[in-house]
Specification:
The chain is mainly α and about 230 residues long. It is built from eight helices and two strands. Strands 1-2 form a two-stranded antiparallel sheet.
Length: about 230
């Protein structure tokens, strides 16, 4: 039989000398990632408004109805980000540094991908409403960030990070499936954006593991202070 010892690692343990440096590095990477992402979306928007920009055919989108699922795509996504952040910061702080760095890497690679190829919005795409959360979503997204789907990819990244915790893994994979279906039914992503996301994210996770091994080891460490499984 296995018993579980409570993790004694707290948020304040991140402010030790070595960990504080790594935390600052993670926050800086994330800030740079958001700046790059913003400019990549602005760049993509200039192409979107060009009269020569056209949408392309999509076998899946051509054959499914358009459904307004903004309450999942916008409110659901933003609420999930807030709750997920609070969960990691206060309940899983040893995962925080690696999670921030892996997320920054995902945003950077997605920004590069967005900047390379530009196609038009698929006809009938559901637009955001006029609410406060809709404004936040629209400012950040511009409805132009197609490849690859962040709605699909970010939960998969979180599932990979927390893979050894079956409950969290299942929750994040379920979230990814729900967001994937929602963005396709709302026609705000082409099908390739959604189906490519798991493969892109898995590669990003492995790159983050390679680039930040000490932060990953902190997250999954079984040393004293972490959750330890032992025979009794």
């Amino acid at each position: 039989m296995e018993t579980q010892q409570q993790d004694s690692f707290t948020f304040w343990d991140l402010f030790g000398h070595e960990r504080l440096y790594s935390l600052a590095e993670a926050l800086l990477l994330l800030a740079v990632a958001f700046v790059l992402d913003h400019f990549s979306l602005v760049y993509a928007y200039t192409y979107l408004t060009d009269p020569t920009t056209r949408h392309v055919g999509d076998l899946l989108l051509d054959n499914i109805p358009i459904v307004d699922l903004n309450f999942i795509i916008i409110e659901g996504a933003l609420i999930s980000i807030v709750l997920g952040t609070l969960y990691v910061v206060f309940l899983k702080p040893r995962y925080l540094i690696f999670t921030l760095k892996a997320l920054a890497l995902l945003i950077m690679i997605r920004a590069l991908s967005i900047s390379l190829t530009h196609i038009g919005i698929y006809p009938g795409q559901i637009n955001p409403g006029a609410g406060f959360l809709d404004a936040i979503y629209l400012y950040y997204n511009f409805q132009t960030g197609f490849f690859f789907s962040g709605h699909t990819g970010i939960p998969i990244l979180m599932a990979l990070i927390f893979w050894e915790t079956p409950f969290l893994r299942a929750i994040f994979l379920l979230m990814s499936c729900i967001f994937a279906v929602a963005v396709l039914l709302a026609h705000i992503h082409y099908s390739i954006d959604v189906f490519a996301a798991p493969f892109m994210v898995y590669g990003i996770f492995k790159i983050a593991h390679y680039l930040f091994p000490h932060d990953y080891e902190l997250a999954i460490s079984t040393e004293q202070g972490n959750i330890i499984y032992k025979k009794v």
